[in-house]
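Our preliminary data section would be incomplete without showing what the modeling component actually yields. Below, a chain of 160 amino acids is followed by its predicted structure, encoded as C-alpha cells that our downstream tools consume directly.
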Amino acid sequence: MIKTLLYIALSTFLITGCTSTPPQKASDIGILGLLICQKNEICPIVTVAWNESNKTILKVKMSLNSSYKKYEINKVVFTNGKTSHSFNVDGPTEIDFVFGSYRSRNSIMLPVKLMADFTESKEVSMNIYTDQGVISRYILKDEIKAPVFEELNKVYKSSI
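Predicted structure:
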C-alpha cells in the first residue's frame, strides 16, 4: 500500500514538472543537423537560430563531439573557393565531458546576406578553426545540401 502511494505521488510530481516546463519558441530554432561528413570524420553538429524580430543576424551554434580530444574553437570560415567569409566565435569554447566523450561548443553570429555570395555555388565548405587544426566539412557538395545550407538559404530568401 505504501509503495502504491509513493508511486502515485512520484508519478504526479513528474507529470506536473513536465507540464509546467515552458516550451521553447519554435520560431527561434531553424535547424539542428550535421554537415556533409564521411563515416570516419568528426561531424560537427550545427544549430541555426534567429530572432523573429531581427532576421538580419543568425546565431550558428556548433558542437564537436570526440571521445579523445577537446577542441578550442577559434573561428569559422565559409568558402566556395573564390569567396570567403570569416567569423570569430562569440566567446570561449564550452567543453563538457558527457557519457565518456568530450563535447566542445561555441557559436558565431553571421549576417543573413552571407548566402548572397553562395547561392550560385556548386560547393561551399564550413571550416572550423580549432587548436587541433582546421575541421573542414561541406555544407553543399555535388548537389547535396546539408540541412544547415538549406536553412541559411531559406532565411536569406525570405529576407529579400
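Residues 118 and 151 are 13 Å apart (CA to CA). The two ends are 65 Å apart (CA to CA). Preliminary results of this kind motivate Aim 1 of the renewal.
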